[in-house]
Every structure is written in structure tokens, then in C-alpha cells.
Amino acid sequence: MTVTSKTREPVSEAAWALTLFVSVASSLLRNLLDDDLSRYAAYVFLGVAASVALVLLVQSIRFGVESWSWAVATLVSVAVGLVSQFG
């Protein structure tokens, strides 16, 4: 019987870029459209982006990341979105 060890790959740039895209989409919905549906959609997008960014941050700390620049850009975007939305 052979035992293979599973090594975890670092978090990809694509995961961070996709999360950044969702965060920016939330901001655009909130700023460009002015109706209730777009406001609720912006809340949903920001909630998803914040949740995914938190999971990606934990995974990046544990297993590494291909590029910290995408991680930092995404975290800043989500933080600015949260502060401007609820601050």
C-alpha cells in the first residue's frame, strides 16, 4: 500500500481576481444605479465578496498565495466597500 501525501497548492491569482471583480461590481451597482433592486444586489455582492475574501485570506495564510498584490487589492476593495456601505 502506498501512501501519497496531498500537498495543498497556493491560492491562485484567479480566485483573488474574481473576488475583486465581485467587489467592484458591488461598488458600481451601488454608485451607478439608484433603485432598491440594485441596492440589494450590491449588498449581496459585497457580502459574497467579503465572505470569499475572508476564506481566501485564511487559505493564503495557511498555504501561501501566488501573488500577494491581488490579495491586497481585493482586501482593500472589500474593506472600502464595507466602510462606505455601513460606515
Task: Describe this entry's structure for a reader.
The protein has 87 residues and is mainly alpha-helical. 77% of the residues lie in helices and 0% in strands. The protein contains three helices and no strands. Helix 1 runs antiparallel to helix 2, helix 1 packs parallel to helix 3 and helix 2 runs antiparallel to helix 3. The radius of gyration is 16 Å and the shape is elongated. The N and C termini lie far apart (58 Å).
Given the helix and strand composition, which structural class is it?
mainly alpha
Task: Please work out how many helical segments DSSP would assign.
Answer: 3
Give the biggest beta sheet. Answer: none
Oligomer: single chain
Q: What is the percentage of strand-forming residues?
A: under 5%
Quick synopsis:
By secondary structure, this protein is mostly helical.
Helices, strands, pairings?
Layout: H1 13-32, H2 36-63, H3 68-86
Helix pairs in contact: 1-2, 1-3, 2-3
Which terms summarize this structure?
single chain; 87 residues; mainly alpha
